[in-house]
Amino acid sequence: LQELAFSQKALLGWLAKQVPNFVKPVRGVLQHLYSAISDQELSERLLSAAENRIGPRLLSPEGLYSVRYLAGSIAAASKDLQPEHALVEMLQAIEDRIGTRGAWLNSFALIGMRMHGAAKSTDGAPFYARGRKHRSGHKKPAAVIRADVKEAVAQIRQAHLGKYLSPKMLRDPKGLEGLIDKHGPDVVPIITTVIYRLMIDGQKVRSWKYFDEAIVDELRLIHLQAERVRPGDVTGWRALDINA
Questions:
Q1: Radius of gyration of the chain (CA)
Q2: Most CB within 10 Å of its CB: which of 132, 141, 231, 239?
Q3: Pick from 113, 91, 85: nearest CA to 12
Q4: Other C-beta atoms within 10 Å of 150: how many?
């Protein structure tokens, strides 16, 4: 795959010429990135970031290898950036520079060169991706997705429910992490149930906050059932007993 990737200008063929002193990924990084994200999931994230406006060769096995190679190379060139951060920032950069502008992504060269330049910049700023900065002037690094949150996202994807959520929610599930921290790991089945209901209405969710109220209601109902209390008794009314 490496030979194929470096033989194509749209993939990594530009790298040695445009970034002569590029740093190769640290040993084991590529294998780590292959374990962290599958080709299918990476393809989906690329398509989502570019809003489906992406050249087919970039989604080939050598194209997906190139994305991981660039993330590993950029992380190695940076002082404090992890490969997972670099990969997430690349996807965010594609969304910001391609997806939101209606352009087409037919080569990794432009984004790769700019990110390499930012990673090696003397001011320590890790990436150009979003351009939003802290008060210190440094751009915010991407957050690492926690293992339990990643598993929750995988469950939603496996149920083929991802299309009813905005792409950003699955790509950056920080809100889901908050729901799990607040309500516990049992929120995932509740979320999938709510999404199934939305399928009927054809609605699409754009924020994890949407599920908060539904989770509270469902957990409350589960608690009442465990206590053998009828929901109507708690809310101030009793169900009519036709046998009374």
A1: 22
A2: 141
A3: 113
A4: 16
72, exposed or middle or buried, with CB in 10 Å at 0-12, 13-18, 19+? buried
pTM metric for this prediction: 0.52
64: number of CA atoms within 13 Å, CB side?
17
Phi-psi region at 124: left, alpha or beta (left = phi > 0; alpha = psi -120 to 50)? left
- pLDDT tens string, the chain, 244 residues long: the values are 889 999 998 898 888 788 777 788 888 889 888 988 889 989 988 988 888 888 999 999 999 999 999 888 888 887 667 888 888 888 888 887 786 677 788 898 888 887 766 655 544 334 444 444 433 344 444 456 778 888 888 887 776 566 677 777 777 788 888 888 888 877 888 888 887 777 666 667 778 888 888 888 887 887 777 776 555 554 443 443 434 3
Query: Which token pair is 52?
Result: 């489906």
Q: Which two tokens stand for residue 164?
A: 């009813």
* Count helices and strands in the chain by DSSP H and E runs: 13, 0
165 - beta bridge partners? Answer: 205
